[in-house]
């Protein structure tokens, strides 16, 4: 039955897998709550329209020519922010002249910070979406307030704790660190993403019960309402396909043949790259652990190689039926499969939340940015994972055995089961995510269609 739609919302996602997915999931959630959803997306990495017939799509010319979209360089992100401005402004201006237009607000990924400039000029309310954890944003803000306190540091300090950023150490500072320094452009970029301009609220793909005190501290900083309504992929009525890569579903049949809780799922997300040495150490670590494994090796993710040519000769024949390698997996289904007992992950926020929701404990191998923070929280605070700090076959083998076969591993499993139950409780009626979603719907529905004009500054008063 067709429901009568409330106002519309425009979503502006950042066009990388880990950002696009939660924005489309948020679209599903808001659509199920009666809003019309328009997705204004860049030309590069555009979502597949046929997977989301319930949305209206609008393509913005991002002006990027022959760009390598395999990794979001800061240059690309700045260009996208600059190039999409005019397009969004024209689109919005035309829309606002239309009769019967009932645009409630624009919801944008915090990385697409140009949106707030454009919308403010036209006095349209904006809401920012954070696709990462509150712990990550909090550490970024703390560091931006006093970068000289952290950078540069000495090699000898790498493992030293940073009490005010507990449980982080210098080694885990979530910036682009080169020679123990941080480049000025990286600081500038983070300043831009943390400046939310005149946005009126923030939506989070996290859970209030999980990050309550950090969310409160951030809310004091930003002085606006926060709506933590995660986990997005479980809060909507359907989780439509949003993969940029083609999923290989054959691995589900292979999983069907494996014993419960026996398989280690290995995936480093959509962006991380490793070198051939790490590929080989991981390959031997997996083989020597003697545990069944499902390993995603994304084409182009091994530096200097097209695919997995650097695997030891005859590797796949040697591991035989005990191991399965695919180019891209239906990850949420894999994690939900009863055969999967552990996840060797780069700790992207989506992977982290998806794993906890399926009560799968983790082995953490973070690379950059929020992954470093997530890995520390998973291993040190939530204690639902073990961190791998040395990429060496014997270390990998031992850590896999510890997770899958030891008493310590069983304790980690028990804690992740508890975490999952807390998330389930948050989604129930009267749970925090459920309640926050209701508040968000009321909040968006009550937004004025145009913000008041800015108060003029009276010089000399
Ligand atoms: N993913 C997937 N299949 C894979 C690997 C990853 O569907 O083989 C999905 C995963 O479920 C998650 C997203 O890709 O939703 C990766 O996002 P995340 O934040 O974990 O990491 P990123 O790719 O941004 O580094």
Automatic annotation (TrEMBL):
| Example of a GO MF term | quercetin 3-O-glucosyltransferase activity
Q: What is this protein called?
A: Glycosyltransferase
UniProt GO cellular component terms: cytoplasm
Report the SUPFAM superfamilies cross-referenced here: UDP-Glycosyltransferase/glycogen phosphorylase
Q: Which family does it belong to?
A: Belongs to the UDP-glycosyltransferase family.
Q: Which UniProt keywords apply?
A: Transferase
One Pfam annotation, family name?
A: UDPGT
Annotated InterPro entries: UDP_glucos_trans (IPR002213)
Q: Give the originating organism.
A: Solanum lycopersicum (Tomato)
